[in-house]
Amino acid sequence: MASLKDLRVRINSVKNTRKITSAMKMVAASKLRRAQDAAEAGRPYAERMGRMLAGLAASVAGSSGAPKLLAGTGRDDVHLVVLMTADRGLCGGFNANVVRSARNMIRDLIASGKTVKVLCLGRKGRDALRREYAGLIIGTREGMTRRGAEFGSANDVAQTILSMFDAGQFDVCTVIYNKFRSAISQEVTRQQLVPFSPPEVPSSEPSVSGVARPVYEYEPGEEEILADLLPRNVAMQVFSALLESDASEQGARMSAMDNATRNAGDMINKLTLVYNRTRQAMITKELIEIISGAEAI
């Protein structure tokens, strides 16, 4: 049985831990508000841009003048996986879920005879994959969301991806990240960046099949517009994924620290109960010894 001193030390230790988790919860909650507002504000622009490019791509698909970012290389041999995680832990299953999805994708691609390259945006993703796929990691970017998601950081990543594509270092690029749903819910999402893949139409939207669509004439032509907008779309989609990942991280950390604070409170109550029972048992034992000694005299 632990002594009273050991119990006091443990209770004080858990109380200090509860103070830390409570402070981290409040910090994450304050960051979550800004990150959530930024993610929700960025969604309409990214979705509209994707739909506009999908309309343009449909009119030039299969033509000889289609941009390379739309037509692709014509092969499916080398895949670049862009993995977005956090630089720190203590955020529940935020990192583990997206790493699990990336690991499954890498395993399936390798089993299909594909060559895989991994670009890690976040230290936790690199640390998790390094144990099994260290040879596939071509680079790591840290501190992407240290001061919140910024377009400059996303644009740097996009330029790296575009440079690799122009150099013929991969055929298909896919980004894996956590999409923000709520403070307690994140959805692991895979999105193909290169070549351009039209966004899926939500099932809630009404079908427009059989309905005449307006015909637009573009100046300059569709090929020139796509050649200019497709690189911007890569940067925009990376930025949108960063916004979603940042909001998801703060929500997951707030939820995890809230659970940790509650668990610390429950442990303090249990330890306090054990402490009081142990103290009462020791007092009772001393009284019995005193009374027994007095009767012996």
From TrEMBL:
Record protein name field: ATP synthase gamma chain
Keywords: ATP synthesis, Cell inner membrane, Cell membrane, CF(1), Hydrogen ion transport, Ion transport, Membrane, Transport
Compartments in which it is found: Cell membrane; Membrane; Thylakoid
Self-association and partners: F-type ATPases have 2 components, CF(1) - the catalytic core - and CF(0) - the membrane proton channel. CF(1) has five subunits: alpha(3), beta(3), gamma(1), delta(1), epsilon(1). CF(0) has three main subunits: a, b and c.
Organism, as annotated: Haematospirillum jordaniae
Topology term for the membrane: Peripheral membrane protein
GO molecular function: ATP binding; proton-transporting ATP synthase activity, rotational mechanism
Reported function: Produces ATP from ADP in the presence of a proton gradient across the membrane. The gamma chain is believed to be important in regulating ATPase activity and the flow of protons through the CF(0) complex.
Recorded superkingdom: Bacteria
GO terms for cellular component: plasma membrane; proton-transporting ATP synthase complex; thylakoid
InterPro entries: ATP_synth_F1_ATPase_gsu, ATP_synth_F1_gsu, ATP_synth_F1_gsu_CS
Family: Belongs to the ATPase gamma chain family.
GO terms for biological process, alphabetical: proton motive force-driven plasma membrane ATP synthesis
Pfam families in the cross-refs: ATP-synt (PF00231)
